[in-house]
Design goal:
- This protein is α+β, with helices and mostly antiparallel strands.
- The protein has one domain.
- 15% of the residues lie in helices and 40% in strands.
- Strands 1, 2, 3, 4, 5, 6 and 7 form a 7-stranded mixed β-sheet that branches.
- It is globular, with a radius of gyration of 14 Å.
């Protein structure tokens, strides 16, 4: 039996940015996975950077200024690293960034984050991710 819809996690005074993910299946649910790293994003809990971002490092959870930059970044992730279902090219969407936040030339790096609205290649992926994270999800 699939789990009940989870409550959306709130980030105090967030900055909303765009980012991309891969999708990792886990039975009746699926988890977001960083597009360029192996980190799984937890459901109903903030995703936390292992190292706080500051001006002298590149640490943090990245968020981009625009949807167009997120779509371009999605195209950079390799096909063999994408998707939960055959033919699923990955996911992009908005993310609430919080904690310590550093602005850079293309967006932000933050200490914590949680997905807000996801755009998926197919309705099955959208439904599974909406159930897992308690956020809006739809076909791109």
């Amino acid at each position: 039996m699939p789990p009940a819809c989870l409550q959306k996690v709130r980030v105090d005074a967030p900055i909303i940015a765009w980012r991309v993910w891969r999708v990792a299946p886990a039975g009746f649910v699926a988890f977001l996975k960083s597009a360029f790293r192996e980190d799984l994003w937890p459901a109903s809990a903030l995703f936390r950077s292992l190292v706080l971002p500051h001006a002298e490092n590149t640490a943090g959870i990245y968020g981009l200024f625009t949807r167009e930059e997120a779509v371009a970044a999605l195209k950079l992730s390799s096909p063999e690293r994408r998707g939960i279902f055959v033919g699923d090219p990955g996911v992009f969407g908005t993310v609430a960034l919080g904690g310590k936040i550093i602005e850079h030339e293309r967006g932000y790096r933050a200490a914590v984050a949680y997905p807000q609205h996801l755009y998926c290649a197919n309705i099955k992926t959208a439904q599974v991710l909406a159930r897992t994270y308690g956020c809006e999800a739809e076909c791109a």
